[in-house]
């Protein structure tokens, strides 16, 4: 088999066999195929696409390029969730203890933030002492004992994806649905869970800007997962405004705690409850996802899963006293408040720009090795559709001077107060096949 023949086959729209896809991935990972040929191959895929069998073969080949985590010695059904990345997305921080309280097992490997989207691992590191690197045995033991663990993704997971993603980044081949779907699923399948819920964000602050694209991506990821014998559901959730009110690492931990206390923002509470409902149904804890949803909502409302959050923090070496007084998470910065210039309703919020503004303050990375300020960020006091009076606080910036001027300018240009009271649809679609 020669790579040049496979590039040619894909260039003319041919369908690659499993063997051919395995050949490409194996030989690119071990260095036999050089970057210039892989770049041509990726561009051919970009233009000609891949069907669901090819995408599945690609995901499985990338999964098998590294460690496939074996979670068999954790009792019960192991569940996982994945978000395609949004602004203010602190779902995992609430969902992990919630799922543990309700009796499923969440063994979660999460990422760090890049660009305008945050990462769960950075958020957890705003809790002093919280350890995001656990040996596999300890990770599994913790899930067995307390029902959840959240760690950074091991470097050995899907190394082929890592190498290909870096190449896609510099060859304008990131925004290809089969390449995105197989990239995400290779890592999810390598992480070892039996059931996965995919939260595909759609809207201004998301990777997928239109509903059509988001549906196509979701369908493909669900098909890949099911072909790999996993239970998979995808939900499409709106990212036309940030999720909840707070953006920034420690601020998002604060809001997650508020939600676990039963006082969280409606949209965050809803997304967490919907995802948990599907996970509980997959795990057999509830008969249906609706029943699981109601269970999740009731648990949050009554604050019953908050002790499980403290248990998670303690198990991973975090300072429980620090989070028990949650104001500690807000007390490390100065504040600057942007107020409304007129009466009306909040009509639009540019979630992407809010994410960028938080990044400029130091909450996110422009480059992979940028150092974060874990305590800066934004608090958006209004949601789309809320009434606003002139002089009301719209956004509080938690800052340490860095990037303040740029962030104020960007935020001031990134929301609209008008006469229309809009309502957003939060859960746009549920995809099960
Ligand atoms: N996230 C991934 O892991 N892979 C992609 O290709 C895009 C987003």
UniProtKB/TrEMBL annotation:
Span of the signal peptide:
none
A single GO molecular function, which one? 1,4-alpha-oligoglucan phosphorylase activity
Its domain of life?
A: Bacteria
Give a Gene Ontology cellular component term annotated to this protein.
Answer: cytosol
Q: Which reaction does it catalyse?
A: thymidine + phosphate = 2-deoxy-alpha-D-ribose 1-phosphate + thymine
Occurrences of domain Pyrimidine nucleoside phosphorylase C-terminal (ranges): 345-418
Example GO BP:
pyrimidine nucleobase metabolic process
Q: Does the keyword Glycosyltransferase feature in the UniProt annotation? A: yes
Q: How does it assemble?
A: Homodimer.
Family classification: Belongs to the thymidine/pyrimidine-nucleoside phosphorylase family.
- The molecule here is called Pyrimidine-nucleoside phosphorylase
Which organism was this protein described from?
Acholeplasma hippikon
User: In the UniProt record, what gene is named as encoding this protein?
Assistant: pdp
């Amino acid at each position: 088999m020669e790579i040049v023949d496979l590039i040619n086959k894909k260039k003319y729209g041919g369908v690659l066999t499993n063997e051919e896809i395995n050949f490409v991935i194996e030989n690119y990972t071990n260095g036999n195929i050089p970057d210039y040929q892989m770049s041509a191959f990726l561009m051919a895929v970009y233009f000609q696409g891949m069907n669901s069998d090819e995408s599945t073969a690609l995901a499985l080949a990338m999964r098998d390029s590294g460690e496939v985590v074996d979670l068999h010695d954790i009792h019960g059904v192991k569940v996982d969730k994945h978000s395609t990345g949004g602004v203010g997305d602190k779902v995992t921080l609430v969902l992990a203890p919630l799922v543990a309280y309700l009796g499923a097992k969440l063994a979660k490997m999460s990422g760090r933030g890049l660009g305008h989207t945050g990462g769960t691992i950075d958020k957890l590191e705003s809790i002093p002492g919280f350890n995001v690197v656990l040996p596999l045995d300890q990770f599994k033991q913790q899930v067995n004992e307390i029902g959840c663990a959240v760690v950074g993704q091991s470097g050995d997971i899907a190394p082929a994806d890592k190498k290909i993603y870096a190449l896609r980044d510099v060859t304008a081949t990131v925004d290809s649905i089969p390449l995105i779907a197989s990239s995400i699923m290779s890592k999810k399948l390598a992480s070892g869970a039996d059931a996965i819920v995919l939260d595909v964000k759609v809207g201004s602050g998301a990777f997928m800007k239109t509903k059509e694209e988001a549906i196509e991506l979701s369908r493909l990821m669900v098909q890949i997962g099911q072909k790999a014998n996993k239970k998979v559901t995808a939900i499409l959730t709106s990212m036309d405004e940030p999720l909840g009110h707070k953006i920034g690492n420690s601020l998002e931990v604060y809001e997650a705690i508020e939600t676990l206390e039963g006082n969280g923002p409606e949209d965050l509470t809803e997304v967490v409850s919907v995802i948990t409902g599907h996970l509980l149904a997959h795990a057999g804890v509830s008969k249906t996802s609706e029943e699981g949803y109601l269970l999740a909502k009731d648990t949050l409302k009554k604050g019953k899963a908050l002790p499980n959050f403290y248990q998670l923090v303690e198990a991973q070496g975090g300072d429980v006293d620090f989070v028990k007084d949650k104001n500690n998470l807000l007390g490390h910065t100065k504040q600057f408040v942007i107020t409304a210039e007129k009466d009306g309703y909040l009509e639009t919020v540019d979630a992407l720009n809010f994410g960028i503004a938080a990044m400029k303050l130091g909450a996110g990375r422009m480059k992979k090795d940028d150092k974060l300020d874990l305590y800066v960020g934004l608090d958006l006091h209004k949601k789309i559709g809320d009434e606003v009076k002139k002089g009301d606080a719209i956004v509080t910036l938690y800052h340490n001077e860095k990037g303040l001027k740029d962030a104020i300018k960007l935020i001031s240009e990134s929301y609209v107060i008008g006469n229309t009271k809009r309502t957003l649809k939060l859960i746009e679609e549920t995809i099960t096949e």
